[in-house]
From TrEMBL:
The keyword Transcription regulation applies. One of its GO terms (molecular function) is DNA binding. Keywords: DNA-binding, Transcription, Transcription regulation. Residues 27-95 form the HTH gntR-type domain. InterPro entries: Bact_HTH_transcr_reg, Chorismate_lyase_/UTRA_dom_sf, Tscrpt_reg_HTH_GntR, UTRA, WH-like_DNA-bd_sf, WH_DNA-bd_sf. Pfam families: GntR, UTRA. This is GntR family histidine utilization transcriptional repressor. Residues 1-25 are annotated as: Disordered. The keyword Transcription applies.
Length: 256
């Protein structure tokens, strides 16, 4: 069975448009195709094990070169999203079962599930060419997106979020209203992370951080650093600062 893409949801494309789009800053066509495939899988239109359309068929359907579709398929196969079987076709990969499961929930969900009122203050949301920001995302040049947000429970700050984002994966990041949803929730909806590295440490905040979090001198913070990948590239690097007296980490692990 071959699953067909719906015309209403196809990515914008032209036979010779990818190079021009790259020059004017638009999202490359192969990245649009990857996002489209992920969305079809996320909505259940394509299920694990389904055989999807061939490179030739998708190239004809969307008016792009076959090599553009092949590049998108190759990236998704490398990321474990698709499985390519020579002589048969390309399938939606079956999810792998890990030996342990760890979850850190979004701060807004955590607050509302406790019956409290969640609010957020966006301190800054812009692009950055700072060398430290580029280095964090392993980009040689260009720019990245940068957001700084204070998350509150019943108007009391419980988390300061300082995040750098790769614009290649989230081109509309700066147009989002992060008082209505957290950056993490937004990004997971657009392009779920495939790998996350994190560490948690105790640190004493400086004076500006204490003011943001309404803390007394000498109070420690729990600092959660996180780096996330999509298709082998660093998509986001973030530091979360939490007043230790108002916040704790907890989790649950499942073993086979």
């Amino acid at each position: 069975m071959v699953t067909r893409m719906k015309e209403s949801r196809q990515p914008a494309a032209s036979a010779q448009g990818e190079e021009a789009e790259a020059k004017n800053g638009a999202v490359p066509i192969h990245e649009q195709l990857k996002a489209y495939v992920r969305q079809c899988i996320k909505t259940g239109e394509w299920k694990p094990g389904d055989l999807i359309s061939s490179e030739h068929a998708l190239a004809r359907q969307f008016g792009v070169a076959r090599m553009t579709v092949a590049r998108a398929f190759r990236d998704l196969a490398n990321a474990g999203v698709l499985t390519r079987v020579q002589g048969t076709g390309t399938f939606v990969s079956t999810p792998r079962h890990e030996s342990t499961i760890a979850e850190i929930r979004s701060i807004d969900e955590d607050v509302t599930q406790r019956g409290r009122r969640y609010t957020a203050k966006v301190l800054s949301l812009d692009s950055s060419t700072d060398q430290s920001a580029l280095t964090a995302l392993q980009r040689a040049s260009g720019f990245v997106y940068h957001s700084r947000i204070v998350h509150c429970e019943d108007d009391v700050p419980i988390q300061y979020e300082d995040r750098y984002v790769n614009p290649q994966h989230f081109p509309q990041y700066l147009s989002q209203n992060f008082t209505q949803q957290t950056p993490g929730s937004y990004m997971l909806h657009i392009a779920p992370f495939q790998q996350i590295e994190y560490r948690i440490s105790a640190q004493l905040p400086n004076a500006p951080m204490r003011r943001r979090l309404m803390m007394e001198p000498g109070e420690p913070c729990l600092v959660h650093w996180q780096r996330a990948w999509i298709d082998g590239q660093i998509a986001s690097v973030v530091h979360f600062w939490h007043p230790a007296a108002r916040f704790e980490f907890s989790g649950r692990a499942a073993y086979r």
